[in-house]
C-alpha cells in the first residue's frame, strides 16, 4: 500500500507541473491594513475569477495574455490593475465615501464550508460561538452538526465530543496548530479554553495533514485565538445560570509599538450551589472554580516578512462532586459519604516565528515550539488517580513551489517529548505507570491547485518513536468542481497513536468496576499502538430555491482499525476490560446536510447522521456502547437589520434528536440496578435571544434542554455507592433538566 501511494504521488506531481497561477493579498487602506474578506478578483473580459479568503489572500489562474485584473468589494472603489507577470500582488482598496444614504453589505456566514479548499473543512467564526452558552471549547459545538456533543458521566458535568462516531482521542486537537488537548488533558482539556478567547475554529474531517503529525485518525479541530494585532482595547463578558454557575471574562489589549501588540486574557468561573434535580442524593453538577490567565505577544514586520507570537498561560481548575452530604475535609477516603475531587494545574509556554521571503512571497519558513505541564490529582470515592505530564513540541516547516505557484510543497521536521508520571489506585491495581515517549519525524506534502476546478494535497511522513518504532504515514486529499457551485472531495490516510487508557476513560473511576488489562506484551500499559485507516468522500452542491440560496452536502467516511485498545464494558457490569483488538473494528459515518436561507437574515440548518460502529469484543461483535445510530440536527437563526445606532435583535433555536443507544451490559445486577439493552430516543432543545444596544454593548438570555428531558436512573447503585453495583458512567442523556442563563458583553473599541 505504501509503495502504491508513493508511486501515485509521483505520477500526480509529474502530470500537474505545467500550469501557472497568480497569487496576491487584498487589504483595506487603513492604519491597521485589515485584510478584505470576500473581495472579487477577476480577469477583465473573462469569466475567470475568484474571491479572497479569510486572510485576504487569493489565487487565480494566469496566462501571459491576461493583463488586466479587476478587484472590487462593496463599499470600496473598484480598481483595475495591469499585470505583466505572475509575481505576487499586494493591493490596497480604498473605501468609497460617496455612498451617503444607501449602505450595502455582504454578511459573512458564521459557519462556512468552502468550494475551493482541498480538505473537507468547516470554519466556525466567533459569531457562531455567540449563538449559544459557549462558556468553553467543549460547549462550542452545540450549533455545529459536524460534531456530536455527549455526556461522559453523571458526576463531573464534563461534555465529550465525537466526530465520525469516534471520541476525541482519535482527533488531533490543536491551538493555532500546536498540540492542545492530548494525553493527560483528554478528559477535561476542552473545558480549559474559554469560548471568548476563540477567534475561529477549523474542523477537518478525515485523516488531516501530515504536517500536524501522525496521530490524527478521524480528523482535526484547530482553534485560532484572538490575535493581539486585531483585538480591541477592552472586552468584558459576564454570565450566570440557574445551575449556579457564574463566569467572568475580561480582555485587555495594547498596541505597544508599530510592530508589537499584546493581549491579556483573564477568565474565572465557579459553580457555588448544590443541585440534585433527579433526587438521587448526588450532585448533578460539580462544585467548581477555575482561574485561567493568558498573556499573548505579537510581533509583525510585513515589510521585512517577519511575524511571531509568544504565549504564556496558567490555569487552575478544581471540581468537587459526590453525595450532597459529602464533606471533603471529613469524608475523603472514608465510607461515610461518597465524594470526589479533581484538581488540575496547567501551564503553557509557546512561540511561533514565521518569515516570508520578500522577493519570493510564495516561499516561507516557520518554527513552532511549545512546552506545557499538566498536573492532576484526583480521587473518586476510594479510587485514586493522579497524572502529571510534561510535554515539549517543536516543528520546523519550509514552504515553497515546484517550477510555478500551482505546484507547492511543505517539508520539515518535528520533535515530540512526553513524560508521564501516573498513579492508578483501584481495587486490583495500585501502582505507578510512568513512561517517557519521544519521537522525531520528517514530512513532505505536495499541493497542486489549478485555481479553477481541481486541487490535490498528498503527503507522507516518516517517524521514529521510542515505543512505536519507525513507520510511514501517508495521506491524500483531492477536490474536483464538476460544475458551478459543486465540489466533490475524497481523502484517505493512516493514523497511529498511543492510547492513554486511564486518562481517556476517567469516567470509569467513578464506579465500582474492576480494571483488568488482558495483554502484557505491548509497550503502552502492555497494549500495542492503535492503527487505523480513514477513507472518505464528500459532495456539496449550492443552488437557488424560490430565489433564495440553498446548499446540500453528503459526507461518508469509514475508519478501519488494524489495531485498537478495546475498552470492553460488555463482559460484566463489575468489570472494565482493556485489551488489543482481535478481529474487526470499524466506524461508518454518513451525514446529509441541507441549509437554506428562508428569508433575509433568516437561515435554516439541518443534518441527518447515521453511524454504524462495531467492534469484535470477547463476547462477540457488538455496537460501540452509548452511540446513537441515528441523529437529527436542526438550527434556526434570525437577525433583524442593524439600525443606525447599531441596535439589533438576534434569535437562535437548536433542536437535536438522538435515536436509541446500546447500553453496556448490566444483566447480572439486581433488578433495581439494571438498565435495558437500549436507551430510549429523545429530543433536546436550546434557544437564545440576544439584544444588541450598540456596537459596544449587548445582553443575552437563553435556555438549554428547555424540554426538560432527564435520564432515568443516571447512577446505578446510588443507595450503596461503595457496593459492587455502583456506576455513574452509563450516561446517554442530560441529568440536570432545564437550565436558563443570562449574560452581557461590553466592549471599548
Automatic annotation (TrEMBL):
Cellular component terms (Gene Ontology): cell outer membrane
All residue ranges annotated as the TonB-dependent receptor plug domain in the record: 118-219
Subcellular compartments: Cell outer membrane
Short name of any one Pfam family annotated for the protein: CarbopepD_reg_2
Signal peptide extent: 1-19
Keywords recorded for this protein, A-Z: Cell outer membrane, Membrane, Receptor, Signal
Protein name, UniProt field: TonB-dependent receptor
Annotated organism of origin: Flavobacterium microcysteis
